[in-house]
Design a protein that fits this description.
Strand content: 15-25%
Helix content: 40-55%
Shape: elongated
Number of strands: 33
Largest sheet: 9 strands, antiparallel
CATH architecture of the largest domain: Up-down Bundle
Radius of gyration: 42 Å
Distance between the termini: 143 Å
CATH topology of the largest domain: Rhopdopsin 7-helix transmembrane proteins
CATH superfamily of the largest domain: Rhodopsin 7-helix transmembrane proteins
Number of domains: 3
C-alpha cells in the first residue's frame, strides 16, 4: 500500500560553485501519538468483597496507516478487547477488565502497543495505562461536580467537551484537597494546524506550499474560545514551529501572508488574563516566547507594506517618523526597519529591571532592520513618558535574549525635560518603564532629625538667654520689637520642630493624632514665618522711614494679629476646604503632613504660597539693607573702603538670613527640581535639609551669640554671679577660723 507520504525527496549539497544533488523516492511510515486512560480512573475498592469493571482505552489520531494493536495482560489476566470507537478526529481502541478488590492491589497497569508493519526500523509505539486503586483506608478527594473520587497525590483527568481536543486535569493534593483545574483543551481548528505544521517539521512537506496555515490561524483565533490558555499556548507554539521550519527550509515570507498573520497575533492579545494557566500563574514565559516568535518572523520576511490591527501594528519605516499607537520611531538616513507595535503585551512581561520594581503597561516595540549598518540609532517617543510621577525615574529598556531580562544597555532616557524620548543604538524589542518607588536620598532622614535635635536644644537656649538678658538689652522700642519677634519665632519653631520629631514614625501614629500633628506643624511654621514678616517690616520701616518712629502699642497689636491670627485663619480655611481635615485630602498618614496632588493642587499649597510670599518679601528687605550698606551716607563714604563694605554685606546676610527664613528659598528649588536631575537636585536637597533643620542653631549663633549687646549682658551676668560667689567664700573664712 502506498501512503500519501510516498514522495520523491531531493538532497542538495553546495560548496562554492560545486553543487551536488541526490534524489530518492521514500515512503514514510508513521507511528501514532497515543493517549491512554481508564474508566473509572480510580476504581473504588473500599469494599474488599466487590469487583469493579474497568474500561481501558488507547486513543490515536485518524490517519491512513493500518496498525496492529496488542495489549499486555501481565497484571490484568481477563483483559478482553472491545470494538473501536470513532469520535471527532480520534480513534479509540478499548479493552475491558475486572479488578478484584480482595486482591488488595494499590494499582494495576496494562500497555497498549501499536505496530506499523511497513516501518523498516522502529515499528512500535507504546503507552502504559496506570490504574490507581482506592483501597479501604486510602486517602482521597471526594466527588466534585464532574470530577471523580480521586486518590490523594494523583491527578484526575476529564475529556474535553464539545469538539475541543485534549484533556482537563485537576490535582488531588497530598493534603487531600482539590486544586484549581487546568485545561489543555485546544480548539479543533488549532489542533489541525498543529498536526499540519508537526508533519512539516518531520519533513513531510514544504512550508511554502502550506501558506494557507495563516488563513486557518486567523480564522481559529477569531472565535470566542481563543480566550483560553490552551488555545493561546497552541497558537504561540504554532508560530514558533513555523519559524523553525522556515529557517530549516530557507524560506522567506512576503507581504501576501502578513494581513492574516498580524490579525492572528492581534486576536490573541484581546484578553491577556487568558495567558495564565491558573489564577496563581504568571504569563511571562508565554509572552516572551510570543514576542521572540514575532521577531523571528520579521527577520525571516521581506516586507514592503504595513498592516494595522487593533492590538498589533506592523509598519515598514525609513528615516522619517513612523507614528502609531501614540508612539513614533525615527531611524538614521537610508535605513529601513520593520517596526511591530504591541498593545496589552506589557501586562504579562516582567516588571523588574536590575532587581528593581518598575511599572510598564504601555506599548512594546519590536524593531527589525531591513538594510543599513548593524547598529542603528533609533529615536522613539513613548506617550507613556508623560504620565511619569514626580521624582520617579524612567527607563528605556530592551529585551535581552541572552540574559532573559530587561536591560537598559545602549538606551538613554530623554530626562525630565523630554520624558517621552528614548534613544537606543541597536535593534530589539523596546519599551519605557517607570520606577515604582520615588528616588530616595541616602541619610536624608538621619540628617533631618539630627539637625532638628540640635535646633530644639538651640532654641531652648535662645529663649533662656533672652529671658536672662531682656532687662539689660531691651532699652529701646526698636530693640523691643526685634527681641519680641525673635522670642516668638523661636517658640513657634520649637513647637514645629517638636511636632516634626513626634511624627518621625507616621506608621505608628493613629490617624487622628496624625491630623493633629499636621495642624500643629502647619500653624507653627506659618506663625514663625508671619513673625519673620513682622521683623522684616520693622527693618524696612527703620531704613525707609528714618524719622518716623513706630509706636510700641501699634507694633504689638499688628504683630500679634499678623503673627498668630493670620496663620490660624490659613489653617482653618485649609482644613474646611479639604474635607474638614479628611485623610487623603487635607493630610496623608504616610508623612503626617499636607497633601500634594499636582501643580497648584493639594493642601500643601496652602502652606507653600504664604511661605513663598513671605520669603520673597523678606529677601526684598534683605536687599534693601544691603543697598543701604553699599550706598553709605556722605559722611561715611570717605571712611569706608570696599573691604569694609564686603564684610558688612556678608555679616548682614549671615545675621539676617536665619531669622528671616531666607534659606527656605531653597525649598522652591527642591519643589521644582526632580530628583532624577542629578546631581543638581541632590545638592539642592541636601543644602535645604542641612540649612533648615539647623535653622534654630543658626538663630542661636547669629541673634544671641552674634549680637554684641547680648554677649556683653551674658558676660556681665556671669561675672557678677562669680563675684558674688567669691565674696561669699571670702566672708566665710573668718567664721571658720573662729569655730576652730
Amino acid at each position: 500500500m502506498i501512503s500519501k507520504y510516498h514522495r520523491l525527496f531531493t538532497c542538495e549539497y553546495t560548496k562554492g560553485p560545486i553543487k551536488l544533488t541526490a534524489s530518492e523516492t521514500l515512503d514514510i511510515a508513521l507511528l501514532p501519538d497515543i493517549q491512554g486512560s481508564s474508566k473509572p480512573q480510580f476504581p473504588d475498592c473500599t469494599d474488599p468483597n466487590k469487583n469493579v469493571q474497568v474500561e481501558i482505552q488507547c486513543a490515536i489520531s485518524k490517519n491512513s496507516e493500518n496498525y496492529t494493536i496488542s495489549w499486555d495482560r501481565t497484571q490484568l489476566k481477563d483483559l478482553t478487547i472491545s470494538s473501536l470507537e470513532y469520535k471527532g478526529n480520534k480513534i479509540y481502541h478499548k479493552a475491558g477488565a475486572t479488578i478484584k478488590c480482595a486482591d488488595n492491589n494499590a494499582s494495576l497497569s496494562t500497555t497498549c502497543t501499536f505496530t506499523n508493519i511497513r516501518s523498516q526500523t522502529k515499528k512500535n509505539s507504546s503507552m502504559t495505562v496506570d490504574i490507581p486503586i482506592i483501597q479501604n483506608g486510602s486517602s482521597f478527594c471526594d466527588n466534585n461536580g464532574d470530577w471523580p473520587k480521586t486518590k490523594c497525590n494523583y491527578m484526575a483527568v476529564l475529556d474535553c467537551v464539545n469538539s475541543a481536543v485534549g484533556s482537563m486535569t485537576r490535582e488531588c493534593h497530598s493534603d487531600c484537597k482539590w486544586q484549581e483545574p487546568i485545561s489543555y483543551c485546544v480548539d479543533t481548528g488549532l489542533h489541525l494546524i498543529q498536526d499540519q505544521i508537526g508533519e512539516i517539521r518531520k519533513g513531510l512537506g514544504f512550508i511554502k506550499e502550506n501558506a494557507n496555515i495563516f488563513i486557518q490561524l486567523q480564522i481559529s483565533t477569531t472565535s470566542n474560545t481563543i480566550k483560553a490558555f490552551a488555545n493561546i499556548n497552541a497558537t504561540v507554539e504554532i508560530l514558533d514551529s513555523i519559524n523553525i521550519v522556515s529557517e530549516k527550509q530557507s524560506h522567506q515570507w512576503n507581504d501576501t501572508i502578513m494581513p492574516n498573520f498580524v490579525s492572528a497575533i492581534s486576536n490573541i492579545l484581546n484578553d491577556t488574563n487568558s495567558w495564565k494557566q491558573t489564577s496563581n500563574d504568571n504569563a511571562t514565559n508565554l509572552s516572551i516566547k510570543y514576542l521572540l516568535s514575532v521577531e523571528k518572523m520579521m527577520k525571516n520576511s521581506n516586507l514592503s507594506s504595513s498592516v494595522n490591527r487593533s492590538n498589533v501594528a506592523l509598519k515598514v519605516c525609513n528615516s522619517s517618523d513612523c507614528n502609531y499607537f501614540n508612539v513614533s520611531v525615527k531611524t538614521e538616513q537610508n535605513v529601513t526597519v520593520v517596526v511591530v507595535g504591541f498593545r496589552n503585551l506589557a501586562t504579562n512581561l516582567p516588571k523588574t529591571l536590575n532587581n528593581k520594581s518598575v511599572e510598564s503597561e504601555g506599548i512594546i516595540l519590536s524593531v527589525t532592520e531591513v538594510n543599513g549598518p548593524n547598529h542603528t540609532n533609533l529615536k522613539m517617543n513613548f506617550s507613556d513618558g508623560q504620565i511619569r510621577k514626580h521624582n520617579h525615574e524612567m527607563f528605556c529598556v530592551f529585551w535581552d535574549e541572552n540574559q532573559t531580562e530587561w536591560s537598559s544597555d545602549g538606551c538613554t532616557w530623554g530626562g525630565v525635560n523630554n520624558p517621552t524620548l528614548c534613544t537606543c543604538t541597536h535593534n530589539s524589542a523596546f519599551t519605557i518603564m517607570m520606577s515604582k518607588t520615588a528616588e530616595i536620598l541616602p541619610y536624608m532622614e538621619e540628617l533631618t532629625y539630627v539637625g532638628l535635635g540640635i535646633s530644639v536644644v538651640s532654641l531652648v537656649l535662645c529663649i533662656l538667654i533672652e529671658i536672662m538678658v531682656w532687662d539689660t538689652v531691651v532699652k529701646s522700642n526698636i530693640a523691643n520689637f526685634r527681641h519680641i519677634a525673635l522670642v516668638n519665632i523661636s517658640v513657634c519653631l520649637l513647637f514645629a520642630y517638636g511636632a516634626l520629631l513626634a511624627s518621625a514614625k507616621p506608621e505608628q501614629i493613629p490617624s487622628n493624632w496624625c491630623m493633629i500633628l499636621t495642624v500643629v506643624k502647619q500653624f507653627c511654621f506659618l506663625a514663625a514665618f508671619f513673625w519673620m514678616l513682622c521683623l522684616s517690616f520693622v527693618l524696612l520701616h527703620q531704613l525707609i522711614f528714618v524719622f518716623e518712629k513706630l509706636r510700641k502699642r501699634v507694633y504689638l497689636a499688628l504683630s500679634i494679629t499678623v503673627g498668630y491670627a493670620c496663620p490660624l485663619l490659613c489653617v482653618a480655611v485649609t482644613v474646611i476646604q479639604y474635607g474638614n481635615g479628611k485623610e487623603g485630602e487635607y493630610y496623608t498618614t504616610e508623612t503626617c503632613w499636607l497633601v500634594y496632588q499636582s501643580t497648584l493642587k493639594g493642601s500643601l499649597f496652602a502652606f507653600i504660597l504664604p511661605v513663598g510670599t513671605i520669603v520673597v518679601i523678606n529677601m526684598f528687605a534683605l536687599l534693601v539693607v544691603i543697598t543701604k550698606i553699599v550706598q553709605p551716607t556722605v559722611s561715611e563714604a570717605k571712611a569706608r573702603d570696599e573691604k569694609d563694605v564686603a564684610k558688612s554685606i556678608i555679616k548682614t546676610i549671615v545675621l539676617l538670613s536665619p531669622i528671616l527664613g531666607i534659606t527656605w528659598i531653597l525649598g522652591f528649588f527642591v519643589f521644582s527640581l526632580d530628583l532624577t536631575q542629578k546631581p543638581y537636585a541632590q545638592i539642592v536637597n541636601y543644602a535645604f535639609t542641612i540649612l533648615n533643620s539647623l535653622q534654630g542653631f543658626f538663630i542661636l549663633l547669629s541673634n544671641c551669640f552674634g549680637e554684641r549687646k547680648v554677649r556683653e549682658a551674658l558676660f556681665k551676668r556671669f561675672r557678677a554671679k562669680k563675684s558674688v560667689n567669691s565674696e561669699r567664700e571670702h566672708s566665710t573664712k573668718p567664721t571658720s577660723l573662729v569655730k576652730k
